[in-house]
Amino acid sequence: MTWRQATREEIVAYYAEEFPGYIDDIPEFITATGPKQYAVAFRDSHPVRKDDIPDKDFIRRDTWQTDASGERTTPEFDDFEDVVEFIRHPARNDPLSRSTFALADPEVLKQPGPCPDAVYYALDHWKRPWVLLVDIDAKDIARDRADEMVLADVDDRDDDVLLDDAEILDAAPKGYPYAFEDLDRAIEYGFEVRDILEDEFNAEETMVVYTGQGVHVYLLDTDPAHRYDEQSREVLNDLLLETYDIPIDPVVTADRRRVARLPYSLHADVCSIVQPIESPAFDVLSATPKVIDE
């Protein structure tokens, strides 16, 4: 089993050839104008038009123009096809096109346009409550496992040294800060969290999404009794961390400014399609796009 970074050509091919076929499968609350923002990360930084502004390797773009009071005025994307075009060609289709803070025109620069290494959407939402998402990352599981394997004072250890001493960096996928067993355990934890949400919170709508290096677990109930404000989210974090000892990232659950990987986008660092999954037996290699050159 191997793991590698997608090439620029493979990323471009994925968003041109495969990603459009998944549009109808994207969860219905993720629309052109529902999330308050979309975001794109680039492998190589790209200049903006304004002088003396650092090149950007990550940008957020609002889905609506707003007035001084924060009320919506004009949508930035007419439909999801516009979002797809922004993902494929962020500089050419930058919603800030009239601003000097927009990405610079690649043709003027005489260089390739920025390539989407990762695509995100905002958990804060215009048309429904703030999306509740629990994040479980394989690298956190690997770090905890390394702590147990290496009997030493780990407080002063560099993470890479610790993972190397625990032989995790040499385990497949070699060079990554986790082993495949940590990724499999993250997926198992995801379904444990889903069961907890359904049993403890009477959640009616949940979803487990494989992210490429872990999982996101969603609680999507939106009725007035389940709006899950900051205090409710802190209770959920404490329950999962302290009662069930599940290694979640509590900041993601509690911070409405967070973005999450867009389902069916490409996690280019591991050549995997981010996607909802139905079983802890999910095979991560089945998420490899067709365009990836074996």
How would you summarize this macromolecular structure in one to three sentences?
The protein has about 290 residues and is an alpha+beta fold. It starts with 7 loop residues before the first helix and ends in a 17-residue tail after the last strand. Helices cover about 30% and strands about 20% of the residues.
Please, could you describe this protein's structure?
Helix 4 (138-149) packs across helix 5 (159-165) and helix 4 (138-149) packs across helix 6 (180-200). The chain folds into 2 domains: 30-122; 132-258, DNA primase, PRIM domain. The longest helix has 21 residues, at 180-200. With 294 residues, the chain is of the alpha+beta class. The chain has helices at 8-18, 80-88, 106-109, 138-149, 159-165, 180-200, 230-243, 250-254, and strands at 37-46, 56-62, 64-66, 72-75, 116-122, 132-137, 206-210, 214-219, 248-249, 259-261, 266-267, 272-273, 275-277. The strands form 4 sheets. The chain has a 5-stranded antiparallel β-sheet with strand order 9-6-8-7-13. A 4-stranded antiparallel β-sheet has the order 2-1-5-10, with helices on one face. A hairpin with a 5-residue loop joins strand 3 (64-66) and strand 4 (72-75). It is globular. The chain is built from 8 helices and 13 strands.
Topology:
Elements: H1 8-18, E1 37-46, E2 56-62, E3 64-66, E4 72-75, H2 80-88, H3 106-109, E5 116-122, E6 132-137, H4 138-149, H5 159-165, H6 180-200, E7 206-210, E8 214-219, H7 230-243, E9 248-249, H8 250-254, E10 259-261, E11 266-267, E12 272-273, E13 275-277
Antiparallel strand pairs: 1-2, 1-5, 3-4, 5-10, 6-8, 6-9, 7-8, 7-13, 11-12
Helix pairs in contact: 4-5, 4-6
